Amino acid sequence: MEHMKAYFMFTSTGPLVVLTSYDFVKDPELLKKLDAKGLSKFIACELSVESCKAKYGTHFDIVCGDLRQSDDFRVLDWSGERAFKNFSFKELGSPIFYESE
Fold first, then answer.
1. Which of 29, 41, 74, 83 is within CB 3.0–4.6 Å of 99 for a Cys-Cys bond?
2. Where are the domains of the chain?
């Protein structure tokens, strides 16, 4: 994934850190994929990709290189506890709210 964005997502199952090649988390095609994964309601805050690389190190590289996952959306961190410890609120971009109709 050469061009990517990173987001901290607050979901019904807990916080996630995700990477995507879409330019915006509310891109209609991405929303279809998220909805299919059960992520039909969330609050997303953009993160610095460089900060994610620094915090997750080798795991970041593995997630980006895992060919079994989709090229346009990958979960970097499923652990809400770890995600909350890794990022301060100051590192989160403005909240983006989404709820499917």
1. 41
2. 5-99
